[in-house]
Design goal:
alpha+beta; Immunoglobulin-like; Lipocalin; 2 domains; ten-stranded antiparallel sheet; 5 helices; about 40% strand; elongated; DUF306 domain-containing protein
């Protein structure tokens, strides 16, 4: 075999080997993580989809709520002036022996809220007969972009229907003013010593107990009277004055009922043990 023929065979063999080793280019693939796609909604939690509103409803008067009433707290859309509000969320609390402040918690679906609209919290209390007794009378706006809001205390005002003489406001107003003590548990008050009781509309009781000035709080419910803890000055007086003062403080601290007589010009406060404190306007 000559050299030329041998070279040709070698060339053909090398070409066949090269052709046999050719493979198509690899097609790049994305990693599993890169292949997945997400939308903003996939990352939303339950907190993002609701709005939680907490607070307390209360009022300033020292008047007890009677059992059987109902408190209603609503989140309302008040965007349109002079139009009925749209209720977005509501909580109804049946009142047994609860007294203010009364906590509440509202939960609203964020899909029911429009960012450009205005929302406010409203609170009412109705009595056992369904009559409105207390209501908020001012706007209590919220920031609807927040997911959790504490509005603090919502202060209500009292509602009195025309001709309604049985409301707590009538009872409280009858006590309002300053009374001068005339009798302490059956004993006439000391001459030249003035003991006083001043009942304010906001539930504050103050005055002079015979020697020392004092202040505290009170709550009425019907003819029931409860006097809260009082604070007083610490002057020392003559023994008979100190004795009368101690009796005044004792009756006030144990008071359970009160009675108005003589066209509401005389006040008689009584304890469960039968001790009495009498005063006149």
């Amino acid at each position: 075999m000559n050299a030329r023929f041998t070279s040709l065979l070698v060339a053909l063999a090398l070409g066949a080997t090269a052709c046999g080793s050719d493979e198509p280019d690899a097609i790049p693939t994305e990693s599993a993580g890169a292949a997945e796609s997400t939308t903003p909604d996939d990352d939303r939690t339950e907190d993002d989809m609701t709005i939680e509103i907490t607070g307390n409803i209360t009022y300033r008067q020292r008047v007890a709520l009677r059992p059987g009433g109902t408190a209603t707290i609503t989140l309302e859309d008040v965007s349109i002036a002079d139009a009925s509000s749209t209720v977005i969320a509501e909580q109804v609390i049946e009142l047994d022996d609860q007294q203010v402040p009364i906590p509440f918690e509202l939960t609203a679906d964020r899909s029911d809220l429009e960012e450009r609209n205005t929302y406010s919290i409203r609170a009412t209390i109705t009595d056992a007969d369904g009559r409105l007794r207390w209501t908020t009378d001012t706007a209590n706006p919220i920031d609807s972009t927040q997911s959790s809001i504490d509005v603090g205390d919502l202060v209500m005002v009292q509602v009195q229907a025309p001709g309604d003489d049985t409301t707590e406001s009538t009872e409280a107003n009858a006590l309002n003013g300053t009374w001068t003590v005339t009798d302490v548990d059956g004993t006439p008050a000391l001459e030249n010593v003035t003991a006083t009781l001043t009942f304010d509309a906001d539930g504050r009781l103050s005055g002079n107990a015979s020697c020392n000035d004092y202040s505290g709080s009170y709550v009425i419910d019907g003819n029931s009277l409860t006097v809260g803890e009082t604070v007083s000055t610490l002057k020392a007086c003559a023994p008979e004055i100190d004795e009368q003062e101690a009796a005044v403080f004792q009756i006030l601290s144990e008071a359970t009922t009160y009675e108005l007589v003589d066209a509401n010009t005389q006040l008689r406060i009584s304890t469960a043990a039968g001790a009495t404190l009498t005063a006149r306007r």
